[in-house]
Amino acid sequence: MWQQESTFNDALLWKDRNTRIADLSVKAEWDPDHQEGRFDIDLVIHAGVDCALDRLFVRAVVRDPHGGVPTIGSSRLVAEVPWLMPATQCGIGLFGSLPHPWFWTEESPQSYSLWVVLEDRHGQIVDAVTGRFGISMPVPDGGEAQESCVAGQPFVTEGQLT
Fold first, then answer.
1. Tens of pLDDT, residues 99-148
2. For position 118, which CATH number holds?
3. Which CA distances in Å does 2 have to 5, 6, 134?
4. pTM > 0.85: yes or no
5. For residues 68, 128, 29 and 101, what is the CA-based torsion angle, rounded to 10 degrees?
6. Enclosing domain of residue 127
7. Which residues contact 118 (CB under 8 A, 6 or more apart)?
């Protein structure tokens, strides 16, 4: 009598039901040519299996370090999301400029608040995420840029929202 050897592995089958903002990143910098701060917002929108919504819009709201509404120069802070098939993703880019920004320094870490909202065509909120970003002080002529450090080590942030 013999017995057949087999390997059994468990598998998890999962479907994401919710349409959501899957990832958010912000790049902010000082533009010496225009004497203003500029920021770029990159988003990844994930269409869940419930994506029966025919139109989606993404909107960003920026607040200054003191909670006020800053003067925003040239910008694109509202965009229509292309129609998505369920269980697919797309990238959206938003941008803006700040004519007289509050600068982030190690002595005075001024950061802007960001609120990004995903809405349906009726204005109902489908998802929302928050974040913060800062604009580094411009380097004086002849000076050298310094890395942002934490405990003496270069500081880099990366990751994905869950």
1. 989 998 888 888 999 999 999 888 889 899 999 999 987 666 555 555 55
2. 2.60.40.10
3. 9, 13, 69
4. no
5. 0
6. 20-153
7. 19, 20, 21, 45, 56, 57, 58, 81, 125, 126, 127, 128
